[in-house]
Design a protein that fits this description.
Length: 577
């Protein structure tokens, strides 16, 4: 049941009528605590369970070739009959990216999400070729009430963030209201159609909140020194003063920024072109829902780009984080099929650099500078503002809600720790502040909130179409990337007492220098000696021969070169003629 546009009294979450409260509520974070990404929270009563968000995390360079990292669904799988609903705070990848993988197993469970998130989810399900029931994708709006089940009722409360339709969720439970802020900041001067709903948050605080779970991403920054309006003014000046073509890189998911940049360009007489599959797809969805209002006549594609003067073009691209195959990365290397950097170009990176991406982003900036273009990025120009609340805004939320218990969410360990310390310094007893990590089982009752157990969570990777624990695969890729690979193949023919061994060696990423041929001959000699000696003494055993040849090559390489390449062996029988 979803209720909208009712009287204020009807909109407030109703206090569930329970005869007793003997069973505590369990809260189990499956992702997002101790890391940035794959946000997922389970909230469980004695007989029912709901999920808040189901996101992904993008791997860093440590996870060679891995596309995505998912939360571990094992806990939900084991209690699938209890799952009543999936509640979504907003449409960013780290909050909805895991839904196609979850939906394959739990397609009967309704998903309640803002309209923009619903459209983005539909796109993901279609991309995975998953057939879904329209009735199971249910749109919520500001102050929507969802009676999920006997034990749970959710109210969605509007907040500011870097994507439209962002909400906190106030979940009424047998042990009181749990408020999950989702990602939020306070900025009612921005271009979002939804304002931060001070009234509902204040009303919740007055009524009483048992537990506040609050975004911790930006806790280390004390004050929000800029607003989206300030960013817009700075971008407007840069675009206006640009002598030639303007290229703006930002997150494809930062729909509000993308729409504002497009609007500014059109106001200054420029045509807009978008590059990057996600950028183009998100732009179309935002236009469809009315979050971006531009005339299609002002939008170019790669085919008609050349028909307009370059100083009348504004290009919006992906690649603000240096992603290897993103539009901006290809442009910076001169590999993009439609765009070549000109000295008259102005390139703007309107995004903060995610920790760990500094080197690749710096490389892109340097590549563009060497081609003569002007580059502006955060640090030399104020052209980005975070979508997450700073320390002062987190304090404001805390004091407005006045929860009995507090748990920081969404952040690396240091973020969670700093947020907890902040709350205790503001007067909350340390026993009322829960510093949890993924897999902790927190029990919430009327007078207590504590970690009572821990469940083992495995890393779940997505590599192409493969989903699972591929730690061994990653270790193998890491070995190959660092020391290379040696492939040893030997054909064996045994004729009475005569043993013939024909070895061959292929190496990739290991042997270097002018003596490559002599090294390969040495390895071939090792193979022949091991094979002939073993067969003479013990007979023909291909499994044993493979292991012995592998160990012989590894010992030789380690002693001579002090390296550990991956060694792959294949010993096969040659048929007698």
């Amino acid at each position: 049941m979803i209720q909208e546009n009712k009287t204020q009294k009807e909109k407030r979450p109703r206090k569930p009528a329970y005869k007793n409260r003997e069973f505590p509520i369990k809260i189990i974070p499956l992702g997002g605590l101790g890391e940035i990404g794959k946000n997922m929270m389970v909230i469980e009563s004695q007989k029912e369970m709901v999920i808040i968000d189901c996101g992904i995390m993008f791997p860093d360079e440590e996870f060679l070739g891995i596309d995505l990292i998912l939360p571990d669904f094992s806990y939900i799988r084991a209690k699938k009959e209890k799952l009543k609903a999936i509640l979504i705070t907003h449409g960013h990848e780290d909050h909805i990216g895991g839904i196609p993988f979850l939906y394959k197993e739990f397609s009967h469970v309704p998903i309640y999400a803002p309209k923009l998130a619903i459209e983005l989810i539909k796109g993901k399900l279609n991309e995975h070729r998953i057939v879904y029931e329209q009735d199971n994708l249910r749109v919520i709006g500001s102050r929507s009430l969802v009676k999920v089940s006997k034990d749970f009722e959710a109210e969605f409360i509007s907040v500011n963030h870097s994507i439209p339709d962002s909400f906190s969720i106030a979940l009424s439970t047998p042990q009181g209201v749990i408020l999950h802020t989702g990602d939020f900041k306070i900025d009612n001067e921005g271009n979002d159609q939804h304002i931060f709903d001070f009234f509902r948050f204040s009303a919740l605080g007055e009524k009483g909140v048992q537990l506040l779970m609050s975004d911790s991403t930006n806790v280390e920054r004390r004050f929000m020194d800029m607003t989206e309006k300030d960013v817009s003014e700075n971008l407007k000046k840069l675009i206006k003063d640009a002598p030639g073509r303007v290229i703006v890189a930002t997150f494809a998911s930062n729909i509000l920024r993308v729409g504002e940049v497009a609007k500014l360009g059109i106001e200054m007489g420029k045509k807009v072109a978008l590059f990057g599959r996600n950028m183009e797809g998100n732009f179309e969805i935002a236009k469809k829902l009315g979050y971006i209002n531009v005339d299609d006549a002002n939008i170019l594609n790669s085919k008609n780009l050349k028909s307009y003067p370059e100083d009348k073009q504004l290009l919006i691209t992906t690649g603000s984080q240096g992603e290897p195959m993103s539009a901006l990365s290809l442009i910076s290397q001169g590999l993009h099929k439609s765009i070549k950097i000109r000295p008259e170009d102005t390139v703007i990176l309107s995004a903060s650099v995610i920790p760990g991406n500094e080197k690749v982003v710096s490389k892109i900036i340097n590549n563009i500078v060497l081609q003569g273009a002007e580059v502006y990025y955060q640090g030399i120009k104020q052209i980005h503002v975070s979508g997450h609340a700073t320390r002062d805004q987190l304090q404001f939320m805390l004091r407005m809600i006045k929860p009995k218990f507090f748990m920081p969410v969404h952040g690396e360990p240091r973020h969670l720790m700093h947020h907890s310390d902040m709350v205790m310094k503001l007067g909350w007893p340390d026993k009322n502040v829960i510093l949890a990590r993924n897999g902790n089982v927190i029990e919430l009752s009327q007078d207590k909130a504590e970690i009572v157990d821990n469940i083992l969570l495995n890393s779940v990777f997505v590599d192409g179409t493969m989903v699972g624990d591929v730690n061994k695969l990653i270790r193998e890729r890491k070995t190959m990337s660092e020391d290379g690979v040696i492939i040893a193949i030997a054909g064996v023919r045994v004729l009475g007492d005569e043993i013939e061994c024909i070895p061959d060696v292929i190496s990739k990423g290991f042997f270097i220098g002018n003596d490559l041929k002599s090294i390969q001959e040495e390895v071939k000699g090792i193979i022949s000696r091991v094979v002939i000696e073993y067969i003479h003494n013990k007979g023909l055993d291909y499994n044993a021969l493979n292991n012995l040849v592998k160990k012989g090559i590894e010992r030789y390489v380690q002693s001579k070169f002090h390296q550990n390449p991956m060694v792959i062996t294949r010993i096969v029988e040659i048929e007698s003629q």
